[in-house]
Write a structure and sequence with these properties.
2 domains, alpha+beta, Heat Shock Protein 90, single chain, two-stranded antiparallel sheet
């Protein structure tokens, strides 16, 4: 086997290792797969085959710009196999490309500096190529493992566009600078020196820092959002506690006055005054608004929202039916469950306000089966109100621009999407039906 053939074999093997390192990087930061393991393997195999084919067709001396664009497009296509925000897919694809390109060029530049040769002369030497290519891929693997150790896995959180754009400019600029240096080296036979090597190392360091800042921005934005949602959730708990406290105080007052009420009723009974008895009992029932517990599954995010909203519905005279059969080890974040239930129940209670008192009703059914959870809310509505679609969900014209939808129906869809779920809203005569299906929502015990 000739040295050139060995060079090809080494490239094919090291390129396979390079694809594996990219997979380690994307697996760590994009976390959740959108496709099956077989499809993901197929995507990485296509990445390897196309990348290798283009490199070999260029006689192992591709145009730098073409090589970089080709690698970036292929890495981004593979990132689409992961369930992540588009901006995150773009950023992590660029970061992985910069990391691989920078380590490769640093090794080449160091070799050129020590051997006192040009970029082209160094790359053209088969032995040097083999040693440098193996060394650069090992260095790439080490850098990726260090990054994965230093930075924790991220949630699929999409940061504001202005923050993303500010961090996006730096790695894109770094790719351009790298391309300029490589182009100058290959086209002019420029002899590399220590300054060029240090410049590439500093460029790599800058991107490390930008990567760190990007992770911090994601963390800060996620914490800010979670705090706002926790505040909303705590508000529900506080209102629920106040309802229970008022109910307890009213019960104590009634218990204190019970002897007097019984004496008055006995007097009416002795006199045979049925009408007064009926009126008196009616006044007592009016003082004891029902503030009962409609849900007691043990999950605060469910019990708190349902009990609060259904007590509001009870005050409107709505007939209420609640069935909650869910396990305690749900893998749904409390803030996500609060967003889902608060919005759909807000809409249900509001719809009941437009219906005649005797026709108001809300039925809630939450059921768990085979790691999936089904949420169904059926409520009365006024057919005279025109139903209108709002981004695929139904609402009334009066509420299209209002703020009574809590965090908004778009947020319901966004949360449900995180769990690969579906949202269906239907309008039938005198009732709305909202059905939500969430997949794989239970942690293993």
């Amino acid at each position: 086997m000739t040295l050139d053939n060995i060079k090809v074999v080494v490239y094919l093997v090291t390129n396979a290792f390079n694809v594996y390192v990219v997979k380690i990087f994307l697996d760590h930061f994009l976390v959740k797969r959108r496709v099956s393991k077989k499809m993901l393997f197929g995507a990485y195999f296509c990445f390897y085959a196309l990348n290798s084919g283009i490199f070999l067709m260029s006689k192992m001396q591709p145009v730098p710009a073409v090589a970089m664009i080709n690698s970036l497009v292929l890495i981004f296509c593979v990132s689409l196999c992961y369930k992540a925000a588009l901006k995150n897919q773009i950023m992590y694809s660029i970061f992985s490309l910069i990391l691989g390109a920078a380590t490769e060029n640093i090794v080449v530049y160091l070799a050129s500096t020590f051997s006192n040769t040009t970029y082209l002369e160094t790359v053209a030497q088969s032995v040097s190529f083999i040693i440098m290519y193996i060394t650069s891929k090992i260095l790439f693997y080490i850098f990726v493992k260090i990054i994965c150790r230093c930075f924790s896995k991220t949630d699929d959180y999409e940061i504001p566009f202005s923050y993303w754009l500010a961090t996006f400019i730096v790695p894109i600029s770094s790719l351009f600078i790298t391309w300029v240096i490589m182009r100058q080296s290959t086209n002019t036979g420029y002899q590399l020196n220590e300054i060029t090597t240090v410049a590439m190392a500093l460029l790599l360091l800058i991107n490390f820092l930008i990567f760190f800042l990007y992770e911090q921005i994601i963390s800060f934005s996620r914490i800010k959002t979670q705090n706002a949602l926790l505040s909303l959730q705590n508000d529900y708990y506080a209102k629920q506690y106040k309802i229970m406290e008022e109910s307890d105080a009213e019960t104590r007052r009634l218990r204190h006055d019970l002897r007097g009420h019984l004496s008055a009723l006995k007097t009416y009974a002795d006199n045979g005054d049925i009408g007064e008895i009926d009126s008196y009992i009616g006044s007592l029932l009016g003082k004891t608004e029902y503030t009962g517990t409609f849900s007691s599954c043990g999950i605060l995010a469910i019990d708190g929202v349902i009990n609060l909203k259904m007590n509001e519905a009870a005050k409107l005279g709505a007939k209420i039916g609640v069935t909650v059969n869910v396990p305690g080890n749900l893998e749904i974040k409390p803030v996500d469950m609060t967003i889902i239930l608060s919005n759909i129940l807000d809409n249900a209670v509001e719809a009941c306000q437009h219906v005649e008192p005797g026709e108001r009703f809300i039925n809630i059914h939450m059921e768990y089966e085979k790691k999936n959870m089904f949420i169904n809310v059926v409520n009365s509505c006024d057919d005279s109100l025109t139903a209108k679609s709002n981004n695929g969900m139904i609402t009334t014209k009066q509420n299209m621009n209002g703020e009574k939808h809590g965090l908004g129906l778009d947020n319901v869809r966004s949360v449900v999407k995180k769990y690969d779920g579906t949202v269906t809203v239907d309008k039938e005569p005198q009732k709305f039906i909202c059905s939500i299906l969430l997949y794989s929502v239970v942690r293993p015990k």
